[in-house]
Design brief:
Aspartate Aminotransferase, domain 2, four-stranded parallel β-sheet, 2 domains, 7 helices, globular, alpha/beta
Length: 199
Amino acid sequence: MQMAETRALFPVTEQAVYLNNAAESPLNLWVRQRLEEYLATASAAPQDKPSPRSAVRKALAGLFGGAPRDYALVTSTGVGVGIAAAGYDWQPGDNVVVPADEHWNNTFPWLALRERGVDVRLAPVDEDQRVDPNKVAALVDGRTRILAMAAVRFNTGFRADLQLYSQMAHAHGALFLVDGIQGAGVFPIRVEEIPDGHI
């Protein structure tokens, strides 16, 4: 598809230069058409609404690797991170490590754990919002249960070295949770290349 054809799918480009920060995005015409088809079916024949779950899981496996059965579908990144945070079997003295100033979807669910006695450790970032691996490593220890970070920071576009952080987490027996929404489809993220990766 040529650039002009791609731009034509986004009517917003006729009136503005749109810089997508992934917090809010304009619908392209294909997505709008599918939504309208779904709404028409839901209004007139709700029993015939399609179930796209299998197709979505297959598409995700194509995009990120792994098998379709490896994917659980949730309504948003925040819900997914919240399920992971609230659903983990936290014990007294456990900690979670997250870079400071992550998107709120990858911050608030962890901060809420303080009420349950979990030590929430925020790794400081530099003035350009870059994550320093040494500052993260200084906070990860034998009581770290999850290291969570964005593949791409929402506020700057800084890309994390997912393999490095995965190795850092697993060296201490911790899970590595990646908020991959900012980079999905923009640059390759392959779960099989991140040992025991969780995106």
